[in-house]
Amino acid sequence: FWLKHIRSRFASILVDSGIESIGTLTANTMSMKETVSDLRNRVDVQGFKRGMSQKFDQMSEEEKRISKMITAASEKAPPSLTKYIQAAAHVLAWAWVVLAALLPIMVLAIEKAVEIYRKLPQDIVSAIAGFLMCFTGGTFPTVIAAAEAFTQTGWKESQEAIGFLWDELHIIAEESKKDDDVDADGDGIKDVNQITGSELITRKTLLVMRKTHADKINRALGSLYVGFLSVAATLKVQFARTISLGVSIGNVARPVAETVLVPPLTHLVPKEYHHWIRPVIDYICKAVAVSVAWWIQRILSAYHSAIRGALMCTRALLRIANEKNWYSTTEDKTMLDEYAGWVLAAFGFMCQMYFGFALPFPVD
């Protein structure tokens, strides 16, 4: 490649510049050869190839280990699923290796986001969150309800539990990485590459059991379970009530709809399908009524989120004003935050109604 490049380069030089001196041409040739040699020495192509080869070999070993563990685990799965799991073992192992390669980047991004969040003044965060809640509560009623339930029941305990489990995960990852490099018999082959998939699963399981705190993990998982259970119960009760309201409205509207629609439909629908007229009317009434009930629930959620978010925003702004010495009173001694909050809540609710509980352009 380089010789062809040199020849073509010299040909263009001869044509364009009209070089007639063979000595000059020879000097140019030697100079370009030295340049190519210097570039090769600096880039170290062979070293680069060796490094990439080692990377690929390392990834291949990791894939083999994961594939071996998946194949061993598939033996305990139902017989009808075993062959499919074993067939997908290599794909799952590759996906695991890719995820493991991306995990440090995701962890770094999460840690940076948490660091930025902790550095921000909490009153500013509360003001921004309240303002967004005031204007978007009707668009995301389920998210608002879940956040409210989680905040009131188990946010603090769950936050501590997530932090502890995150630290434990870091410890397990470091210990597993050290275990992968162990060569106890000194034969030059890592021990994890010399055992079966079942033995590898047992080895990693025992490693996790040795390096973690069982009681603390149990309490942390219990805290998370209680928090998530409270959210699920709140959403189930709240939206089951909405569906129940819709069904009740549908049952009330059905007799009127049957009185109005059954006679004309009897003449329009063929006789062999008459037995479907009343059930279809019943289904349509309930579907329309449930949609109306959901719309009512959306209005209630928008009203609640507008009040809750507006008061959160104005009280946070009042605390900021006190810290900056712009205003010398607290929220317990004045009604200013309530007055401003109600005005902001009314404006936020009207904006949600105007946009039909959807985000306006360009944030839609």
Helices and strands in order, then pairings?
Blueprint: H1 2-17, H2 22-43, H3 45-74, H4 79-87, H5 89-119, H6 122-136, H7 141-153, H8 155-180, H9 197-211, H10 214-268, H11 277-323, H12 336-354
Helix pairs in contact: 3-5, 3-9, 6-11, 7-10, 8-9, 8-10, 10-11, 11-12
Transmembrane segments: 87-110, 339-361
Keywords: Membrane, Transmembrane, Transmembrane helix
| Biggest sheet overview | none
Radius of gyration: 35 Å
Report the portion of residues in β strands: under 5%
Overall geometry comes to flat
Helicity level, as a percent range?
over 70%
Strand/helix succession = HHHHHHHHHHHH
Mean pLDDT: 76
* Class inferred from helices and paired strands: mainly alpha
Low-confidence stretches: 1-7, 13-29, 42-46, 51-59
Number of self-contained structural domains: 2
Instruction: Quickly count the helices.
Output: 12
The tally of beta strands, per DSSP, is 0
Keywords: Membrane, Transmembrane, Transmembrane helix
Transmembrane segments: 87-110, 339-361
Features:
364 residues, mainly alpha, 2 domains, disordered N terminus, transmembrane
Task: Quickly describe the structure.
The chain crosses the membrane at residues 87-110, 339-361. The protein folds into two domains: 48-119, no CATH class; 120-355, no CATH class.
